[in-house]
Design brief:
- The complex is a heterodimer of chains A (167) and B (402).
- Chain A has 167 residues and is of the alpha+beta class.
- Chain A has helices spanning 2-20, 118-130, 140-148, 150-164, and strands at residues 26-32, 35-44, 55-61, 72-75.
- Chain A has one domain: Ubiquitin Conjugating Enzyme.
- Helices cover 34% and strands 17% of the residues of chain A.
- In chain A, strand 1 and strand 2 (35-44) form a beta hairpin.
- Chain A is globular and about 50 Å long.
- The relative contact order of chain A is 0.17.
- With 402 residues, chain B is of the alpha+beta class.
- Chain B has two domains: 74-283, 3 helical TM bundles of succinate and fumarate reductases (Up-down Bundle); 294-402, no CATH class.
- Chain B is 51% helix and 7% strand.
- Chain B has 19 helices and six strands.
- Classes of the chains: A alpha+beta (167), B alpha+beta (402).
- The interface between A and B is medium-sized, with 23 and 28 residues.
Chain lengths: 167, 402
């Protein structure tokens, strides 16, 4: 229980920080006051990408081990991206525990450690949207399409983005 | 008949192969206990000798040479954090052992002020404050606990380090401190790594569960131990050709040669035992309560009821297969009333009934003779590893006439 109290205190601190120092394009908070271990997030599609204009919703799920272990992030809207599994789960190195790094070659500062935060995760996801890593195997079809048929990929992505804002 | 002898031979051959495989396994792949306590209780280093009794001769030689010099041994859970945990635990243990409230207070102030390093490299206070708080809490606890007047009573530190949250928060704090230190003093470390400091600290230092490497130990010693006047040494137990463990001492290289008396240094030295991939702690003779009068068995037995719970942690499952119960008893000379209810844990009913006769005398313990410490009843049971029914039976140790 003690470990959980620490996790809750940390999450409360992060939430307070996100509200007080709002970062553009990122919104996150617990779904309900009852359960601090599941958060709802909105990530704005980065400008000058096919994701622009979309507001992509996702859930962040924390474990009792947080922040020793990273949370998991899963998109709850339709999205096509090489680093997002078809079920919406995001696969980037900041979300993987050490030793389980899917893309060892990714930028060093993006690994998970207890000094990372929800804000850092969401910012990493934002840059992942802008710059897919097509060598990741999370969504092979998307990777292939991104490499071989960029036009079609971008069209589908733009559709997804429009759908997220109800167009 | 020919067939029978062939099959006998085959069986013998298989057995030898099996034995060789066991030997190989003991020597090459020491697996630290991943389910044991995060930080174990103090036990006799004879346990190490027993552990390697049937292993590669290099290990037999080294562990046999170890126990007369290093009386005690403490396990650290092999969960990928053992090096960090061993160093963190050892730091608090050494501080407590000073028995110097003022000194601990100074360390507390120093560690609080070092938060400025973390700020300097851009770590947000709201993300690290919880970890720092746990370190400060434990420093407060030990400086205020009754143990401060009985510095060899490690209870407050052992208890704190066996609470997951406290233990992990403290090592996380130290990791962040080391990370900040590396970034602020790259010149001192850069030459030793292949990647950049940035990459090294984010992949090797900061993440939880990543084993500490030599440079990490060096950096942590530089941050935590040397400024406090504490020394860290590592004894390497490996297959290198020598008769004893190789010892490496981390000292303040910039300081003039010390004139401190040896006893004083022993009181301020943390000793780690390194086996490839794993750190535990060892204690040299004289590190722990050098002038303590040996506690007689009966006195310790009286303490057993209160301390019995702690022992289940101390012995773990490993110990139930160990014949050197005498070694545990002699370790009690140092831990005093720590309690060691073997009867509860590993040898149900076997020792309890005979403690009066077999273990009553302090003399017998001081002689350290194995035979004196275990009883006939125990000796002839399968708990004894030199008994042929024991799972770890070693034929060369079996002498049924005894």
């Amino acid at each position: 229980m003690a470990a959980k109290a620490r996790t809750l205190r940390r999450l409360l601190g992060e939430y307070r920080e996100l509200i007080n120092n709002e970062t553009e394009g990122i919104y996150a908070g617990p779904i309900s006051e009852e359960d601090w271990m599941v958060w709802e997030c909105l990530i704005a599609g980065p400008p000058d990408t096919p994701f622009e204009g979309g507001m992509f919703s996702a859930t962040l799920t924390f474990t009792d081990d947080y922040p020793l272990s990273p949370p998991t992030l899963k998109f709850t809207c339709d999205i096509l991206h090489p680093n997002v599994y078809p079920d919406g789960t995001v696969c980037i190195s900041i979300l993987h525990p050490p030793g389980d790094d899917p893309n060892m070659y990714e930028h060093a500062s993006e690994r998970w450690s207890p000094i990372q935060s929800v804000e850092k995760v969401l910012l990493s996801v934002m840059s992942m949207l802008a710059e897919p890593n097509d060598e990741s195997g999370a969504n092979v079809d998307a990777s292939k399409m991104f490499r071989e048929n960029r036009e079609r990929y971008e069209k589908i992505v733009r559709n997804c983005a429009r759908k997220t804002v109800g167009l | 008949m020919a067939e029978t002898s062939a099959s006998v031979e085959e069986r013998a051959g298989m057995k030898t192969a099996q034995e060789l495989a066991d030997l190989e396994k003991l020597s090459a792949t020491y697996e630290p206990d991943v389910n044991g306590p995060l930080v174990g209780q103090l036990q006799s280093s004879k346990i190490l000798e027993a552990e390697y009794a049937g292993a590669d001769p290099v290990y037999v030689r080294k562990t046999a040479a170890l126990s007369p010099k290093y009386s005690n041994y403490r396990t650290i859970r092999g969960d990928g954090n053992c090096g960090w945990r061993a160093l963190a635990f050892g730091y608090f243990e050494l501080l407590l052992r000073t028995g110097d409230e003022k000194f601990i207070q100074n360390e507390m102030d120093r560690l609080k002020s070092l938060c400025s390093w973390m700020n300097e490299v851009g770590m947000s206070e709201y993300l690290y404050e919880d970890f720092v708080e746990e370190t400060i809490e434990l420093l407060k606890t030990i400086s205020q606990s009754p143990a401060i007047d009985n510095p060899y009573d490690d209870t407050p530190v052992v208890e704190a380090f066996n609470r997951d949250d406290a233990s992990n928060a403290i090592i996380t704090h130290l990791k962040l401190l080391v990370s900040a230190h590396l970034r602020l003093h790259p010149d001192a470390y850069e030459a030793f790594i292949e990647t950049s400091i940035e990459d090294y600290r984010s992949s090797q230092i900061e993440p939880y569960g990543v084993q500490i490497d030599h440079l990490g130990v060096k950096a942590l010693v530089d941050v935590l131990f040397i400024p406090a006047g504490l020394v860290v040494e590592i004894s390497y137990l490996d297959r290198s050709e020598s008769d004893e463990v190789n010892v490496h001492k981390f000292e303040d290289e910039s300081a003039p040669p010390k004139v401190t008396p040896a006893e004083d240094e022993a009181q301020k030295t943390l000793r780690m035992l390194y086996r490839p991939g794993h750190y535990d702690l060892i204690y040299k003779n004289g590190d722990l309560a050098p002038a303590r009068i040996p506690v007689s068995y009966s006195a310790t037995a009286a303490a057993t009821t209160e301390g019995g719970v702690r022992v289940s942690m101390m012995l773990g499952t490993e110990y139930t297969r160990n014949p050197f119960c005498s070694s545990v008893f002699s370790s009690q000379v140092f831990t005093g009333g720590g309690g060691f209810d073997l009867c509860e844990e590993g040898y149900p009913g076997l020792l309890r009934g005979s403690t009066g006769s077999g273990l009553g005398s302090t003399d017998a313990m001081n002689k350290g003779k194995i035979d004196d410490a275990y009883t006939k009843l125990f000796k002839h049971s399968h708990y004894n590893t030199s008994h042929y029914q024991n799972v770890n039976f070693q034929p060369e140790m079996w002498s049924p006439q005894d």
